[in-house]
TrEMBL record, chains A, B, C, D:
Cofactors required: Zn(2+)
Single Gene Ontology BP annotation: monosaccharide metabolic process
Keywords: Amino-acid biosynthesis, Lyase, Metal-binding, Methionine biosynthesis, Zinc
Species, as recorded: Marinobacter daqiaonensis
Protein name: Methylthioribulose-1-phosphate dehydratase
Cofactor: binding details: Binds 1 zinc ion per subunit.
Stretches assigned to the Class II aldolase/adducin N-terminal domain: 14-203
GO molecular function, one term: methylthioribulose 1-phosphate dehydratase activity
Pfam families: Aldolase_II (PF00596)
Cited function: Catalyzes the dehydration of methylthioribulose-1-phosphate (MTRu-1-P) into 2,3-diketo-5-methylthiopentyl-1-phosphate (DK-MTP-1-P).
The reaction(s) this protein catalyses: 5-(methylsulfanyl)-D-ribulose 1-phosphate = 5-methylsulfanyl-2,3-dioxopentyl phosphate + H2O
NCBIfam families: PRK09220.1, salvage_mtnB
Length: 210, 210, 210, 210
């Protein structure tokens, strides 16, 4: 397989750096947590190097991997969770960006959902912010996967779930954070904002209702 | 009817873009939600094009509609909720701006108010921020309309309610957000700030009192 | 009585404008609420004109009044609460600045404290931020006055209370906000920050303890 | 013992000033609270002068002390809590920076933990942000020392505790705040962010669970 187009890599890297400044500024990627990726072509994606400060990303913090997660033209170590990104791109050729964030709200909610249950959003106008949703009358189900250091196993689990639920816009990992995706970076960022809004609505309601 | 004055359109559009930067920055218009309008003349208003990022509005994101909601000199699609704006301008010639925002607090409170009841503010000094209120000793009642995809029906309901309560400064739609208005953009923005302040006071009180 | 020094007025006005940008930015002076003052000399103070946006104050938004609250060399209308400022300056010649703010936390807490009781801070290290407090082992008592549109009566009440408690750094008005003061603007701003910190600590504790 | 390298002092001071702008901006060092230090060499550290505004630190707000806490080439008064810094540097030659912050969350949590108990973090992915932690499956224990004006006694207590628990990344003082440290300023700031994230997770969970 031939290499990747360096112009497209550069643009993907810039979009990732800009996303990082936004997400860190909101408090959703603290303390070098989180990882982000952007498709370059059918076999390559740009992804954040492991352990970098997400509010100060520059091009040297973004590397290229192929769809098996192997670094391409780089000695850097990609995010430990690279496989969670690559399975998403492998199974959906329209998917252009993946953001994994790590907010307080996502973390707390993911620990409060009982094992085996999903987080469910209903009757929120903002559900329409998710691609393909045109009414508040539907129901968005967000699965919560148990956290693990065995990323390959988790990647297989998420891949199976997505095959069964191709329209869902994201999932949570317990005590860990959110994965969401989109056709391009703008759509993916809109999904992060919508999820964070809905997480905060749910928590605020729980605070008040006790 | 003749066309609109393009200088006045340009000024209205700039005011809308500036309002968007402020409201998005506060977190009150996330994920391309919300819509804003500004009167141009007795038959035309400037209004946001459907689906745009509210923190990065530019002139191409603001179009003109007449008081029936029909686009004027534009092929863009206006906000799906345009009729909720036009009924306000039609019935009150002093009204110059309408802002529909979409905060977590407004969304959560609107879902907590029991069906058939209003949200009521009493004994808050900040009630004086609403036009025409000169004491904290009054009572501000905010109705909560059920959310619907039938905007024409909702427009008719809000119109009837406003005819009966001409002094009220805003209303909520359940799970959806706030509509408020003013003589000009500055007054309308002051109303948004006052509502958001009072929403947060009510929620904070509910959190503590349980 | 001779006029005031215009250079000192200009400096006082700039300090007030800068304070406004800070306090509005924190969300403590929303929707044209709040008023601020700075002593010019033994008989004059600079104070905000009524109804101005506190995040965008410029020199034309700051006027001069004498210690009876009468405008000096100005046709503007001073804040409706000017007398609450002047009684503080009249009785304490070392006092150089007064800030009245209007945060959600101050508003909510002031409504939760039972009638006739004070808000009390104990065992917080940050109590040392108040002028004259050198240990966390003391006790800061913050009275809560009932809100009223009769500012002259409220001014007399606060004056009496301060005569009896000369070391206290501030008071609340129910449903309305905080008054605090200092030798200069820097000390007064430090007091606002300390009060807001302590208000939030108290509310957070109440949220958790229920 | 010879003096310190002034170039290294200048760099340490700049890192402290930058840290202050960040920490104050987040609301974690309000009202002139907090103190920060950075190692210069085996016997000297740069530390904030007592009582300065942490969001506006400049080089004149950072002085040098030796490992006994005595000022070197300065007439300024170092932070009253200087000994809490020096015992950390004395016992760990790899330690390069110490940050004491003073957030609402740290203050409230430290008062809620029952006397004699520790705050414990378990099953949070973000525990991996602490140096030396490579899995979320461990357990981070944060002791809570009682607040006191006797800093020498508190310094001795913390020193003993650290000798017994050399891998722990920080501790709390009741009603007062957080102490954390790192090899360099970047690691130390990452620890502050991780602690604040975890404090907020714990409080949010307590709010919801009641």
């Amino acid at each position: 397989m031939a290499g990747f187009d360096v112009i497209r890599y550069g643009q993907a890297a810039r979009e990732i750096c800009d996303a990082g400044r936004f997400l860190y500024g909101r408090g959703w990627s603290p303390a070098t947590s989180s990882n982000y990726s952007r498709r370059i072509d059918s076999n390559h994606l740009a992804i954040t190097v492991s352990g970098r400060h997400k509010g100060r990303l520059a091009e040297q913090d973004v590397m290229v991997v192929d769809l098996t997660g192997k670094p391409v033209q780089s000695d850097c170590r990609p995010s430990a969770e690279t496989l969670l990104h690559t399975v998403l791109y492998s199974d959906n050729e329209d998917l252009g960006a993946v953001l994994h964030t790590h907010s307080v709200k996502a973390t707390v909610l993911s620990r409060l959902v009982p094992a085996g249950e999903h987080l469910v959003f209903e009757d929120y106008e903002l559900q329409k912010a998710f691609a393909g949703v045109s009414t508040h009358e539907g129901r968005v189900e967000v699965p919560v996967f148990d956290n693990t250091q065995d990323i390959a196993a988790l990647a297989a689990d998420t891949r199976q779930w997505l095959a069964d639920h191709p329209q869902q816009p994201g999932y949570l990992i317990r005590g860990h954070g959110l994965y969401t995706w989109g056709r391009d970076m703008a759509e993916c960022l809109r999904h992060v904002e919508a999820f964070e809004f809905l997480f905060e609505c749910e928590l605020e309601t729980m605070r008040v209702r006790g």
